[in-house]
Amino acid sequence: MWILSLSLSLCFGAPEDVPTCPEVEILEGGPLSVLVIPAMSARGTVWRGFMARNRDRYTTYAVTPPGFGGSPAPDLPRDSDSTPWTNHALDAIEQVIDRYELEEVALLGHSWGAGIAVLLADRRPEVVRAVVNVDGLITMDPEREKEGPAAWRQAADANVLQAWRDRFQDPEEWAKFNGWPIDLDERSALVYGMNMATPKEVVLQCWREMWMWDLNPAIRRLDVPLLDLQALKPNDPDQEQTRRDYLSRLKQVGVPDTHQAIFLYHTRHAIEGHRPEEFDRLVRAFLEGNEVSNFRPDDED
Fold first, then answer.
1. Phi, psi (5° rounding) for residue 146?
2. What CATH number is given for 6-287 in this structure?
3. 27-35 mean pLDDT
4. Helix, strand or coil for residue 264?
5. How far apart are CA 167 and CA 171, in angstroms?
6. Is 12 in contact with 18 (CB distance < 8 Å)?
7. How far is residue 2's CA from residue 20's CA, in Å, rounded to a whole number?
8. Cβ–Cβ < 8 Å for 69, 93
9. What angle do CA 275, 280, 286 make, to 5 degrees?
10. Is the pLDDT of residue 194 over 50?
């Protein structure tokens, strides 16, 4: 039986001052506050299973930033020299933190939401006690870091706008984007929607801005524990090389000692959907200060 939770849309100020509002679904329970930031293609409701399974341990706030998962998108500049869509998402999540006076909160970010979680922890270090990355991008290429913002914008335009704007007009290309190519499990593919609820123009803006995130300084400043869960995909021909490459990148970036990279072999991008029991166990152990280790399924499915 599903446990009822509180779902709200938060707007502070007149409608013209806040054109779009964050949605937040709250499930009260355990003593530890956990704030979930979903992938760009999803609403926070995707995390209801995790919330219900862990109600005795956590009080969970699942936030949907404006424009995520088909929620009303903000009227913001596109293709700009800055990151207004990212900043708007961060502002929206801060509304939740301030409205509920959250302290000592653990941030759990999936996919695109993981980078947002790191940026939020850097912006509001006084309220964050830990960060969990669920198979998201939380560092930038250390070679690209040296190039600076102007080069990042050029790369964003080339790799996102020029490469994908026309492709997204093809229904087949749009249908498979963020679906089977990143190896979602069937449950998560249905929940997220193979055609994605998030409008194409929002995907392009958020994705473009991700190429412009200055993540490495934020990671280096992070002084709280970070659990970095990386899914080694079943369709990856050399999972060990992927693991080595990722660890090499972390070393080049210079992540703090509080950063723990944990690899789940033969696991799909939506880790919580594919490996719910293992995911819960890893997050629980980490937040309780216990040892965590890599995961290999017995059947190598």
1. -70, -20
2. 3.40.50.1820
3. 96
4. strand
5. 9
6. yes
7. 29
8. no
9. 125
10. no
